[in-house]
């Protein structure tokens, strides 16, 4: 059930609730009377400064809401959340990296979904350690001064196998996310385990920054039951659900910066103050994590921060809007105002106003294919504005700029207003190439000073007019003084690129503003020194606006020479250094070994599970007269599955038909007495609507094999049919649909058939249940760093030629060493160069971790996250498992390491444990 639907309260009833502060119970989430968010008093809460950055400060806090916004300790808070899935970044050290970036780029909250299947390999078994350490993530978010919105499901969607439900749930008779008692019993246990951790990190208790709780709520009865569940578990922060007075804004993904701007400004125009960007960081669907709807290892390639942890071009509007909501409190209580129309009807206008401050906002949207220039009445003046094609703009009037000065109007968007000592700073942003016009109402005649050559100004009838042509990656500064006040106004005008190097930061000792580096992670005031931590890519000048008395600057622990500039800032004498060049090693010394021992008739399968069940909890019917062959029924929920069948009385056999079901990218390979019958892939058409592809593989036996079966008549030996199924993922909305073989049909003979099945071994405690599969090499540790491959033959995946064609699995291994300097954060990927015409399946293992699958012969780059990737003077083991159909050489084309991005800075990275060595 989607949790972002608007409230169904009637307008009159809703307005009655909104007249005064509504307790958190209106969110359905204040589940403990001892922890109800307190009312801020009679009447609406006025607009004012937002609450300070959150942290685990040991003090009780109050959380409430009215129809305008959340209220934290009686102050209005516009929530600007970004979604991050910790399970898609399997390196806890890098959680801090991404969380710090999110905060720097304007987010004040992180929304996290928790995948049940990541933590529970079997009923009653739960693991919150290592890359699954929820407590560590919540502590890190608090240390990064971010609120947390927790969504533990049980169902989370999110492009995850079965929507996050564990594989074992398919085999215990639990109904589909309903009031089924079996499902509820297991779901309650999951929530109880999660809540025990979340309760210790609630913002209301002062022990963390968990601010809101979301959950999968099946109907009104389910909501009442969930409230009782949370009350019993000690959850006291508000619960978000479809009937919440403040709707959880979770817009669809956007493709580019213009679409992101249109979408989020549209939400703002409707008065929303509870925003979520999905995704702020997409990450990687490694191992067997992805659902059929998201078969690529890259999850949301349009995310503002890509899976290599680099900013994308879509980030600028989100950065600007996040800081606007944080630093311009007028936007926490905006209501619809009388309609305003542009002269050109192609520009649609939404007009909002804040009754407390007198500020107005105008959201302009242009859905046409051409840039539109028109006039718009703002602040009593018809102002000429331009909105680019299929883009949007936010303009404002009446914003307070300090010392009695107010914004009359501007043709560019406000980004922030802040005060640093006796300096009032206002930043505005627009597109490069645009002429920015800014008009300020001044109570007395100003003394403007142009600090950069682009700016021009004039003063007329109490208004200061400033014009600036916005240039690419250029900040223009204008200083405004007067004889009637000792406060100085500094106007900053930037294009999108320059805005991404403008960093406001709140310290316990005062606010600062930093310009220049690619990222500001942390700032602290220490006596007369401001200590800054961050990243640079290119050489950058550093400019800091800090409180009085600050005379020195350090950057990443080193003092930098600086002096006082004309903009009343500390300016470095020399630029900050950029990141040094980095050369990655070539991947050489490959060794290879084929497997498929399971296909041989003499292979010992005595330890395999006998597949003889007659009933199943799957929604897929069991064919009459056939045993259950579904992999989930025998405990094999992820990865590849092998079947072996002994056929008694098969001497006249002419063909075999195998019905099977997989998710996206599945396939089937079959052998009879070690002779390949062929490879089959599900059709490339649509699935059944639930993420399942059903197919039947028809194999006619070669004449030589048929003759061999006839010759064996009476020998008392039974031929062996071996089948490898790449079963892939469970559907999100039909997770109980079968995976693996469904049935087998034979022509020319009616043999008695006895089946055995083998899949992944029990998950190790390091990688968890979704990171291992049933290939022979996986079961015997061929992918692990400690495996002895000395007896393997030399051979590269790039050199596999026509003479190597064979059906089945071929493994390749090599090692490489990285020595990235400690002060450099390098993001490295594995580039599979592609092999045109080769329809192969490639599984990539790094230091024992399954980093994802690649299907087909197109080029592909998989991100290798630091932590799993050893970057500091350390060796790494890379293994590839290549599945080829016999008509295709078992290779990948060129394979190389690729530098996806690097910066001088980063965070300390602890190595992620590798799974232990297995013998075999």
Automatic annotation (TrEMBL):
Pfam families, per database record: BetaGal_ABD2, BetaGal_dom3, Glyco_hydro_35
Disordered as annotated region, ranges: 40-59, 786-806
Signal peptide interval: none
Keywords from the UniProt entry: Glycoprotein, Glycosidase, Hydrolase, Signal
Family the UniProt entry places it in: Belongs to the glycosyl hydrolase 35 family.
PANTHER family: BETA-GALACTOSIDASE RELATED (PTHR23421)
The name this protein goes by in its record: beta-galactosidase
Organism whose genome encodes this protein: Streptomyces ardesiacus
């Amino acid at each position: 059930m989607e949790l972002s639907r608007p409230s169904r309260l009637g307008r009159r009833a809703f307005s009655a609730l909104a007249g005064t502060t509504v307790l958190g119970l209106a969110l359905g989430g204040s589940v403990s009377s001892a922890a109800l968010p307190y009312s801020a008093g009679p009447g609406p809460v006025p607009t004012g400064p937002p609450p300070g950055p959150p942290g685990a400060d040991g003090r009780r806090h109050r959380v409430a809401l009215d129809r305008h916004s959340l209220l934290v300790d009686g102050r209005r808070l516009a929530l600007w959340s970004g979604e991050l899935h910790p399970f898609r970044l399997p390196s806890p050290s890098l959680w801090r990296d991404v969380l710090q970036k999110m905060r720097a780029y304007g987010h004040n909250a992180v929304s996290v979904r928790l995948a049940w299947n990541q933590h529970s390999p079997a009923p009653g078994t739960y693991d919150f350690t290592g890359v699954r350490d929820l407590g560590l993530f919540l502590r890190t978010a608090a240390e990064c001064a971010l609120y947390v919105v927790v969504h533990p499901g049980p169902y989370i969607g999110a492009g995850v196998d079965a929507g996050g439900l564990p594989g074992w749930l398919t085999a215990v008779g639990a109904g589909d996310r309903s009031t089924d008692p079996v499902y509820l019993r297991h779901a309650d246990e999951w929530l109880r385990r999660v809540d025990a951790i979340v309760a210790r990190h609630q913002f209301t208790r002062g022990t963390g920054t968990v601010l809101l709780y979301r959950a999968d709520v099946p109907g009104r009865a389910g909501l009442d039951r969930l409230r009782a569940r949370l009350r019993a578990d000690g959850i006291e922060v508000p619960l978000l659900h479809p009937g919440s007075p403040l709707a959880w804004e979770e817009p669809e993904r956007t493709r580019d910066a213009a679409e992101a701007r249109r979408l989020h400004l549209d939400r703002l125009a409707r008065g929303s103050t509870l925003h979520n960007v999905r995704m702020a960081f997409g990450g990687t669907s490694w191992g067997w994590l992805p659902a059929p709807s998201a078969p690529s290892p890259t999850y949301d390639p349009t995310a503002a921060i890509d899976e290599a942890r680099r900013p994308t071009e879509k980030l600028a509007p989100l950065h600007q809007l996040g800081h606007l909501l944080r630093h311009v409190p007028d936007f926490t209580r905006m209501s619809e105002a009388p309609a305003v129309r542009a002269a050109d009807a192609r520009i649609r206008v939404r007009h909002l106003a804040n009754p407390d401050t007198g500020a107005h906002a105008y959201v302009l949207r242009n859905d046409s294919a051409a840039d539109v220039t028109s006039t718009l009445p703002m602040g009593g003046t018809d102002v000429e504005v331009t909105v680019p094609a299929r883009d949007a703009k936010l303009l404002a009037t009446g914003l307070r700029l300090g010392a009695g000065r107010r914004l009359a109007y501007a043709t560019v968007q406000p980004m922030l207003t802040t005060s640093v000592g006796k300096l009032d700073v206002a930043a505005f942003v627009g597109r490069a190439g645009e002429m920015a016009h800014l008009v300020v109402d001044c109570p007395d005649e100003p003394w403007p000073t142009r600090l950069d050559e682009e700016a021009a100004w004039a003063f007329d009838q109490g208004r200061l007019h400033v014009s600036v042509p916005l240039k690419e990656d250029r900040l223009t500064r204008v200083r405004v003084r007067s004889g009637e006040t000792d406060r100085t106004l500094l106007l900053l005008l930037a294009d999108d690129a320059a805005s991404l190097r403008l960093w406001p930061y709140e310290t316990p000792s005062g606010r600062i503003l930093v310009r220049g580096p690619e990222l500001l992670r942390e700032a602290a005031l220490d006596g007369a020194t401001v200590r800054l931590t961050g990243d640079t890519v290119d050489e950058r000048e550093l400019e800091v606006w800090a409180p009085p008395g600050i005379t020195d600057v350090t950057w990443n622990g080193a003092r930098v020479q600086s002096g006082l500039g004309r903009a009343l800032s500390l300016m470095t004498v020399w630029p900050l250094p950029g990141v040094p060049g980095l050369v990655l090693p070539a991947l050489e010394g490959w060794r290879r070994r084929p497997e498929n021992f399971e296909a041989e008739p003499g292979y010992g399968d005595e330890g395999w599970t006998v597949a003889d069940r007659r009933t199943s909890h799957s929604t897929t019917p069991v064919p009459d007269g056939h045993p259950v062959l579904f992999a989930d029924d025998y405990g094999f929920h992820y990865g590849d599955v092998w079947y072996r069948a002994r056929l008694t009385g098969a001497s006249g056999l002419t063909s075999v038909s195998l019905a099977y079901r997989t998710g996206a990218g599945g396939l089937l390979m079959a052998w009879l007495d070690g002779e390949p019958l062929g490879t089959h892939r599900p059709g490339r058409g649509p699935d059944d609507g639930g993420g399942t592809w059903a197919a039947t593989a028809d194999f006619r036996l070669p004449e030589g094999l048929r003759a061999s079966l006839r010759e064996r008549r009476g020998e008392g030996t039974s031929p062996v049919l071996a089948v490898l199924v790449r079963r892939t993922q469970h559907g999100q909305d039909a997770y109980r649909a079968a995976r693996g073989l469904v049935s087998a049909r034979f022509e020319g003979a009616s043999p008695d058939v006895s089946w055995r099945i083998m899949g992944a071994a029990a998950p190790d405690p390091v990688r968890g249940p979704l990171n291992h599969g049933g290939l022979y090499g996986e079961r015997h540790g061929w992918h692990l760093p400690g495996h002895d491959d000395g007896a393997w033959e030399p051979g590269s995946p790039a050199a596999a030629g026509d003479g190597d064609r064979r059906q089945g699995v071929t493994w390749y291994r090599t090692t490489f060493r990285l020595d990235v300097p400690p002060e450099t954060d390098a993001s490295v990927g594995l580039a599979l160069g592609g092999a045109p015409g080769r329809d192969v399946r490639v599984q990539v293992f790094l230091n024992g971790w399954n980093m994802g699958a690649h299907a087909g012969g197109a080029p592909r780059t998989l991100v290798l996250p630091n932590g799993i990737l050893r970057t500091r003077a350390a060796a790494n083991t890379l293994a590839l498992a290549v599945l080829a159909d016999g008509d295709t050489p078992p290779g990948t084309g060129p394979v190389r390491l690729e530098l996806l991005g690097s910066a001088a800075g980063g965070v300390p990275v602890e190595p992620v444990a590798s799974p232990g060595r297995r013998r075999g």
